[in-house]
Amino acid sequence: MKVLRSLLLSITFFAALSFSANAQQDSTGMPGDNFSLQGALEMFKQSGSPEEFEKLINTEDKNVNNLDLNGDGDIDYIKVIDKADKDVHAFVLQVAISETENQDIAVIELEKTGDTTAVLQIVGDEDIFGEQTIVEASDEGDEVDEDNNRGLGKGPSANFFETNRIVVNVFFWPGVRFVYGPVYRPWVSPWRWRHYPNYWRPWRPYAWHVFNPRRVYYHRHYAVVRTHRVVAAHRIYAPYRVSSVTVRTRTTVARNNYNVTRTTKRTVVTGPRGNTHVRKTQNTRVQRRGAAVQGSNAEAVEDRKEKRKKRRG
């Protein structure tokens, strides 16, 4: 019995180490490391209205928000603003950086596609995540890229291409039903810089190694994708996007590092049935140096082959 217990403890310990190691690899250095797009979708799924959704994402123990964009040492309050047009909604998640500046964190885009069907995605803002990052509900869990490598959660681009993913119908989520109800009026958060609800008290941001494992918890039922499915909502939102000069200035170094270490190569690939998709390869500075070494090794191999041919000749 003691041997079995020790074995189970060992397995649990090494599983925890593996999980922690994988979680650490997700770091991009961008502010988006401190906000969970997957967690935001889970809160939207659990909420009965946009107002309740706003409360949930600003609740400390939900582990969705760990942002401190203005560097004042306190967590930022995220307000929700619904930009709507008939059956199309764009729920903007926005932070007041100062009395005169706001910064969009992400936008939840929702469209009704039938009497009882609707599609929804959340798009992380490029100023926060380095690139537009698209997440949607999934019965398949985290998406695996074309090369069977995990890692789309590390700052994917919002490329446009067709996929064979099963799109989850979100119409029966309580908040979605509420939004499409007869009495709903587009929600616009009444809160602003230094004017917040009584229930909310800012807390100190958690360190990355503390927050990230909590954030990763939400990844099981949501996938990072590269297809904009909610096109009409995205068009509605685009003219209203808000970007803060303060945030861009404070993240200059992180953004430059992100751009250098995450260059991408995109190749359009045509399948046997004529379907096309974009194959994306991420390269880091280390990988590029490795490629140079591999190139040198390849040249050496060719030289040896030529010498062997001459000797045989």
Tell me what the structure shows.
This protein is of the alpha+beta class and 313 residues long. It folds into 2 domains: 19-261, no CATH class; 263-313. It is 35% helix and 20% strand. The chain has 10 helices and 8 strands. The strands form 2 sheets. The chain has a 6-stranded antiparallel β-sheet with strand order 1-2-3-4-5-6, sandwiched between helices. A two-stranded antiparallel ribbon has the order 7-8. A hairpin with a 2-residue loop joins β3 and β4 (117-124). α1 (2-24) packs across α6 and α2 (37-46) crosses α3 (50-57). The protein is globular. It starts with a helix and ends with a helix.
Please outline the helices and strands.
Elements: H1 2-24, H2 37-46, H3 50-57, E1 78-85, E2 88-96, E3 102-114, E4 117-124, H4 126-129, E5 133-137, H5 174-179, H6 208-216, E6 222-225, H7 231-237, H8 245-250, H9 252-261, E7 263-270, E8 276-283, H10 285-312
Antiparallel strand pairs: 1-2, 2-3, 3-4, 4-5, 5-6, 7-8
Helix pairs in contact: 1-6, 2-3
Q: Total domains, how many?
A: 2
Could you state the oligomeric state of the chains shown? single chain
What's the Cα radius of gyration?
Answer: 23 Å
Low-confidence stretches: 11-24, 143-163, 267-272, 284-301
Overall pLDDT level: 80
Q: Please, how many helices? A: 10
Range of strand content? 15-25%
**Element-level helix/strand string:** HHHEEEEHEHHEHHHEEH
Name the strands of the widest sheet in spatial order: 1-2-3-4-5-6
Choose one word for the global shape.
globular
Note the main sheet. Answer: 6 strands, antiparallel
